[in-house]
Amino acid sequence: MSGRTTSHLILTLLALGWGGMILFNLEVLESFTQHLLLVSVRWLQLLFVVLSLYGGTLLLLGALPKRRRAQPSRRPFISVLLPAKDEERVIEGMLRALAAQRYTVDGARHFELIVIDNGSTDGTPEILERLAGPLELRVVRTAAGSEGKAAALNTGAAASRGEVLAVFDADARVGPDLLAQMAAALEGAGVAGVQGRRLPYNATANFLTRMQDDEFAILQTALLRGRERVRSFVTFAGNGLLVRRDALEGAGGWNEEALTEDIDLSVRLYLRGWRIRYCDEALVWEEAVPSLRALIRQRRRWFEGSLRSLGEHLPAILVGRLPLRVRMDMLFYLGGSLAATLALLTNYAYALAGLSGVLVLFLRLPTVIMAAAALFFSSALLAAGAVGRGWNPAGLVAVLLRSMAFTLPRLIIVPLAIAHYIQSALTGRMEWGKTTHLGDAAPEGAEAGYISRV
After folding, report:
1. Does this model's pTM top 0.85?
2. Rounded Cα gap, residues 255 and 276, in angstroms
3. Which CATH number, 3.40.50.10320, 3.90.550.10, 1.10.10.10, 1.10.540.10, labels domain 78-300?
4. Above 50 in pLDDT, residue 175?
């Protein structure tokens, strides 16, 4: 049975299970004048409590002081892969930043720089030709008909010679010591790869980019710190990562049928006994999407990719030889946001049924339990914000309000992702949506280490 067929089957069973829970918690009572529809939402509220406690605990763990990282004992040769498709606005700055890396052995550059042109139709090929000599980079091109970032990465990996591969996006900016910082984190038994800390460099562009800045600088940073601390499920994020060649090849390379090849590879590595580390000091600056339409398109692809990974790998996650903390965290990562959003939408559906004239009586958990769960998560988020931004009550309240507002697009994104997945399952076609990089706020210069907002 193929991975795609397994994904369809598992997700269908999960959908039937969710529908079954809704029907199981409906009860019709006869009265003298009308039917009374009793609806129990205790199971949905219990799900909310569990997700809040788990997420809040990870945030608090991430708010603890960072551990010092030991200096590396050796420097493996690194092949830096940069897939590019129509990136004329941003690619030159990133290539100059990568070429300026101070990752050397005996005074010589100890890495190679490979750009994979994935069918660019703008000025990207001309820029690459002009920079190939001065920056000592190689350009390879994907085969005709290849689609998606995973295909480009497999092409680049086949042309590379490093025992370690690094992956960056064309819109990123990095400081000159990034490869050295990440190589130090790669050491240790069973470590397959390292993920750096992603932050947006255009955070002040508008309200939407500020919300993304809160998400990456506070929420995602704290969650990854917490996962690193307890050695649970640290996942690749597609930009700013290192992976060992032997681990990558043992997992079968990048999955060209995966919408989110980074998440898919992370799951497969953990299922094979490897783990991924998070390198907090390795800063990777990237462009936050500045428009709501682009954000919805980007996050719809992310959610659909997680959905596919959940469906394809759920049996192996449940029965594989994973530590319990990794197994639970993997399920939380792949399905937590989906479950929370579906729970909220189900509650809204119940409320609309009540407003439409059907008498709906909600059987709830005690209000104090729900309030305590919400307070715990909010307090953990504020603690993470205080660590990330400093103690500023007004600023932290603004962060909390923006974080609450940032959950609203999810009510659109998740149904779109589910609908798009169903359409793909029925038609057999899959679309790899590419985020357009504008480059309007990208910092200039070969070194981006001067960006000091963390």
Report:
1. yes
2. 18
3. 3.90.550.10
4. yes
